[in-house]
Design goal:
This protein is α/β, with parallel strands linked by helices and 391 residues long. Helices cover 38% and strands 23% of the residues. Strands 10-13-14-7-15-16 form a six-stranded mixed beta sheet, with helices on both faces. A four-stranded antiparallel beta sheet has the order 6-5-8-9, covered by helices on one side. Strands 1-2 form a two-stranded parallel ribbon.
């Protein structure tokens, strides 16, 4: 017989220990991706295991949540639990681990004490060559470029309140804030995945009412969702089909898909984005996280959009793929595409965006550009309510 009182007490202990603040009665499938990941972490910790394997446990967490989780991991290790931590966040690895093992293409490269490694040496071991950890240089956005997207007074229940923003051609606008601040909700409303109660969208200067994702795609709006496996890709279908699905009319005649034309176009995109696979017929589920994300980019570039919304575009990818995605976003903006970038990594937003907008509790509370866009300014706005948060 399940002892409900003890179960709830244990849950409250773990919730407090990690600082996750999850609702004990919430149905897991209704939770956002980040909160589902927290549930997985709590479940692993709750088992009092002697060996704990954690694969990218902080990928969807905020900085504060990450620090609390790492403190919990340190405490478990101090009590005798053996922990294997798999992560693409090199600072986390070096900050918490005693020993670091680097792998490349399924082979063990080396194992060494963490104190003997640096981010640069780990990158070199993982990709087989030296690579700069700096962000690629930003191309200045033209101030006289036409406005591709204008959002006026977007509101939706308690999730969004009077959100207004613009994105110009050739500009990368970063949308920062804590998990649950409303960033993804803004993106989904623009893309037509969620309805909104009030507000107006203008696309290329004309008012539009986006009826859904298909309509958005036809207008020239593309969106990379935060969860590629659940919302972006058909994991058990071939790479070719995943890329071409967004615009079948372009490769079909009288309702029949021209396989040669499809293969040429999808193959060219896969090659341009460096999707590493032996065949376009390979199932997406067989690819690494970085290559899956490249397939997702290829899918939306199959029908060249005018506005690209990228929600957590480098989540769960290795450092080499992350660098390639950063270069791709800058290249797309340089070619004139408008980009709305959402990321939980403040460094990523600051390193790529021309302007940074900060959200808190469903509202835009700050806008920063140039030298004013600093880690401290963005984090202060994200945590501080009221007019003092705005730039």
């Amino acid at each position: 017989v399940l002892r409900s009182r003890e179960l709830r007490h244990r849950f409250d202990e773990l919730n407090e220990q990690t600082g996750f603040r999850l609702d004990a009665q919430a149905v897991v499938r209704t939770l956002r991706t980040a909160d589902q990941q927290k549930v997985e972490i709590l479940r692993a910790i709750a088992r009092d295991a002697r060996l704990l394997l954690m694969d990218e446990p902080t990928a969807a967490l905020t900085r504060d949540e990450t620090e609390r989780l790492l403190e919990t991991v340190r405490a478990l290790a101090a009590e005798g639990t053996a922990v294997v931590l798999v992560s693409h966040y090199l600072e986390e690895i070096l900050g918490i681990c005693d020993t670091v093992t680097s792998m490349r293409n399924g082979r063990l490269i080396r194992t060494a004490p963490a104190k003997e490694e640096t981010p640069a040496t780990l990158v070199s071991a993982m990709i087989g060559r030296e690579m700069s950890l700096e962000f690629p240089p930003k191309i200045p956005a033209p101030h006289d470029a036409p406005v591709v997207l204008e959002v006026r007074g977007l509101s939706r229940g308690r999730e969004l309140q009077d959100v207004s923003l613009t994105v110009r051609a050739g500009e990368i606008v970063g949308l920062a804030g804590l998990v649950g601040s409303g960033r993804t909700e803004v993106a989904r409303a623009i893309f037509g995945a969620d309805r909104f109660d009030a507000g107006e969208l203008l696309f290329e200067g004309k008012p539009v009412r986006v009826k859904g994702p298909r309509h958005a795609s036809r207008l020239g709006i593309a969106m990379l969702p935060e969860s590629r496996k659940e919302q972006g890709l058909f994991m058990i279908r071939p790479i070719r089909e995943n890329i071409s699905i967004v615009d079948m009319h372009a490769i079909a005649r009288a309702g029949v898909v021209d396989r040669r034309a499809e293969g040429r176009r999808t193959g060219a995109l896969a090659q341009d984005l460096d999707v590493r696979t032996s065949s376009q017929e390979a199932m997406v589920t067989t690819l690494s996280g970085g290559n899956q994300q490249k397939v997702l980019f290829a899918k939306w570039l199959f029908r060249r959009p005018k506005l690209l919304i990228a929600d957590e575009p480098t989540r769960g990818v290795d450092v080499g793929a992350k660098r390639q995605i950063h270069e791709l976003l800058i290249r797309l903006a340089e070619a004139g595409m408008a980009v709305l970038l959402i990321s939980s990594e403040i460094e990523e937003v600051l390193g790529l965006a021309h302007r940074v907008l900060v959200m808190r509790a469903g509202r835009l509370v700050g806008e920063f550009e140039g030298d004013a866009a600093t880690d401290e300014a963005v984090m202060t706005a994200a945590f501080t309510a009221g007019p003092e948060a705005a730039a």
